[in-house]
Design brief:
Blueprint: E1 9-13, H1 20-32, E2 37-41, H2 48-57, E3 62-67, H3 69-79, H4 84-87, E4 91-96, H5 102-107, H6 114-123, E5 126-137, E6 143-148, E7 151-155, H7 156-171, H8 174-185, E8 192-198, E9 201-213, E10 231-237, H9 241-252, E11 262-267, E12 269-274, E13 280-282, E14 285-286, E15 294-306
Parallel strand pairs: 1-2, 1-3, 3-4, 4-15
Antiparallel strand pairs: 5-6, 5-15, 7-9, 7-13, 8-9, 8-12, 9-10, 10-11, 12-15, 13-14
Length: about 300
């Protein structure tokens, strides 16, 4: 290891149901490869930000999340509360272990190949990456914001992602949970009246779902690049029921952008002026519903992320 890697790593482990052996596998691999580390386990999803802040303040410079998109989201939001000079000293890494690992997969990290993920982390190759930010007012009149690595979903897919996460904890299988969540969506609203502005264009119509991606967006913004200073946007208009199910199937099979009702954009900012009934998901997790207009923007090259060598 070079001098930049002499310090101990902090491994923040977010347990996942049915993956009890993963901890032993990761620790054995780290030990075999001579990595010096301290292992911290989160008690629940709400403890990730608190523990990550503790690791920062204890002086760790390499912090690896063993978790999924939501755990990474918590880590990034904690990191963004620090001063710039503190953020620039910290390398964030991931070993995928979540319900959804979309951002990790974008870089080639897969839960099926933990050994390779650790080898890449050991090489300590860093890249400054972008993050998105949604700024809104909640029902109590408070100004809020939330950063994201992957995407913001507004409308139908936000509802599906929420149901899919719940179904995955019950069924385990990725495909089965997705099918179950689609079935449950039969009983939900399938389109939403929205008014939004993208670049110089104003859209005022019924929209089924809207995805604003810094990353692959669970297949909806798969051409997004988290280091080009731009957001990819997919707008899906209301369509016939048969076409809706065709579109959901394309999402499952990774060909969502082929659907004829998908309209793509690339921008630095999206202004949602009105979408009163649409749920909003940030990196696969619902946030409280915004009141009035809200804005999604991009912040360029603000996080140091460990990528494959």
């Amino acid at each position: 290891m070079n001098s930049e890697q002499d310090g101990r790593w902090a491994i923040l482990y977010c347990p996942k149901k049915g993956k009890a052996k993963l901890r032993e596998k990761i620790q054995q691999s780290l030990n075999d490869k001579g990595v010096e580390y301290d292992w911290i386990q989160s008690e629940n999803a709400d403890s990730v930000e608190r523990l990550f802040a503790m690791l920062i303040h204890n002086g760790y410079k390499t912090i690896v999340i063993v978790g999924g998109d939501s755990a990474l989201n918590d880590a990034v939001n904690c990191l963004m509360r620090e001063e710039r000079h503190v953020r620039e000293e910290i390398a964030l890494g991931v070993i995928p272990n979540g319900v959804l690992n979309d951002f990790a997969r974008y870089w080639g990290f897969h839960e099926s190949n933990i050994e390779q993920a650790i080898d890449w982390l050991i090489h300590h190759r860093m890249r400054r990456i972008d993050i998105g930010c949604i700024r809104y007012v909640n029902k109590r009149g408070e100004d809020c914001h939330r950063y994201f690595l992957n995407c913001v979903n507004i409308g139908l897919i936000a509802d599906i992602m929420n149901l899919r996460r719940q179904a995955r904890s019950l069924f385990g299988s990725r495909t089965l949970s997705f099918v179950a969540s689609i079935f449950m969506m039969i009983f939900h609203r399938i389109d939403y009246k929205m008014l939004l502005r993208i670049n110089s264009e104003t859209l005022q119509r019924r929209i089924m779902t809207l995805c604003i991606g810094n990353g692959p967006g669970y297949g909806q913004t798969r051409h997004a690049t988290p280091y080009n200073g731009l957001l990819d946007v997919s707008v899906v208009y209301h369509t016939e029921v048969v076409q809706i199910f065709a579109g959901l199937w394309l999402l499952l099979t990774g060909r969502f952008l082929n659907h004829r009702s998908v309209h793509p954009y690339r921008t630095r900012e999206v202004l949602i002026e009105d979408a009163p009934h649409a749920l909003v998901g940030v990196d696969g997790r619902l946030i409280e519903k915004p009141v009035g207009q809200y804005r999604i923007t991009i912040e360029q090259e603000v996080i140091q992320f460990l990528i494959p060598s």
